[in-house]
Amino acid sequence: MEISANVITEPERSLIGAVPTALSNVPWLESGATGRLLLIDAQEINRRLLKSILRAAGQYEFFEAASGAAALEILDRNSIDLVILDLVMPDMSGADICRRIKGNRRTSLLPTLIITNTQSAEQEVLGIEAGADEYLTKPLHPSVIRARVRALLRNKAAIDSLDEAETILFALAQAVEARDSYTAEHCQRLATYGVALGVALGLPRSELIALYRGGYLHDIGKVGIPDSILHGQNRLTDAEWAVMKQHTVRGEEICKPMKSLRPVLPIIRHHHERWDGSGYPDGLAGEQIPLLARMLQLVDIFDALITERTYKRAFSIEEAVAVLEAEAAKGWRDPELVSLFISLLNRNMLETTASLIDTDWPELSSMLRSLQNMHSGIQGVC
Ligand SMILES: [Fe+2]
């Protein structure tokens, strides 16, 4: 059912209610908007009316779902730009659907718009807290719906370009890993160990995600280090060593423009500081060194010890623990963190953290899995 710009049909009136006179003659200033929209509403008539309203102002491709389960299936199989949903669904609430969308890394930045008959501040708070980007209560004028849809799609386009930039950075990090002749999946293991340590310390989700990303990005600054220094067979000269140390600062510079990576910057810059202040680049000591950087450093050293490199054999867990304890005694590492890490190793906690997160924290688990999928996809390309 098509509707002309200024004519409101009777069925449409049932969706939008009475139309304020001042708005009924507003010309459609913007047209030609495009996007893939998923309409989730148990009532077919509501979906049809929304399509009619939106078709008048843009070239949208519509996907429709009458239940939460059907919506999640569509989201799984298609690249959607905007979700418009009702609060009441037969199998799950609109708020639950929003939570599922926002809890999945692949769709976490997908804009969601709730349009509902329910006029309740409590429901609105619930919807927004579940992650909805907009909450509109009927009656609504078609121009309001069209304007909100266009605005959300503009935001989505901006987010997409940022997301692509982040994906490129992760690809670069994978390329650096390969060039550094590390063993396969070094970054993946650092990310997992880092999160395991973070869970043991009871860190908030945002910091666990930073640790996960830090596992991949901490050495990205090595992209600017010449092969002769990175793979030099002889001991580095003072000048070469100074260049090598720069990878911390360069890495921070590379990632700085991306707002989403801000929590990761302290990890990248400070993962070579030492507890006694003898590290680089800033010579920070003790708790001046950001906690996340101390954690990532520990798992980085541990993984380097237990895996084979071109210049060394793989150490056993016991040998690696002895090295960590010796470095803590020497004053290089945070002694409390080293003790905690070793106690986790002894309880086999690093390996079991994934299942722990699965049970206790499904939202985080889903996000980590999505990040992992994204990174494995990239690894296949590099
Ligand atoms: Fe490094």
Describe it.
The protein folds into 2 domains: 10-159, Rossmann fold, CATH 3.40.50.2300; 180-381, Hypothetical protein af1432, CATH 1.10.3210. 57% of the residues lie in helices and 8% in strands. The chain has 18 helices and 5 strands. The chain has helices at residues 10-16, 21-24, 44-55, 68-77, 94-103, 121-129, 142-179, 186-200, 205-217, 227-230, 238-245, 247-255, 265-270, 291-306, 317-330, 335-346, 349-360, 362-381, and strands at residues 33-40, 58-65, 82-85, 112-116, 134-137. Strand 1, helix 3 (44-55) and strand 2 form a beta-alpha-beta unit. The protein binds fe (ii) ion (FE2). The site of fe (ii) ion has 5 residues, from loops.
Identify the strand order in the major beta sheet: 2-1-3-4-5
Characterize the largest beta sheet: strand count, sense, and whether it forms a barrel: 5 strands, parallel
Seen as an oligomer or otherwise, the chain set is single chain
Q: How would you state the average pLDDT, rounded?
A: 80
Strand runs, count: 5
Count of helical regions: 18
CA-atom Rg in angstroms: 26 Å
Report how far the terminal alpha carbons are from each other.
49 Å
CATH architecture of the largest domain: Orthogonal Bundle
Helix and strand content put the structural class at: alpha/beta
Give me the strand/helix succession. Answer: HHEHEHEHEHEHHHHHHHHHHHH
Q: Give the CATH level 1 class of the largest domain.
A: Mainly Alpha
CATH topology heading of the largest domain: Hypothetical protein af1432
CATH superfamily of the largest domain: Hypothetical protein af1432
Q: Hetero groups bound?
A: fe (ii) ion
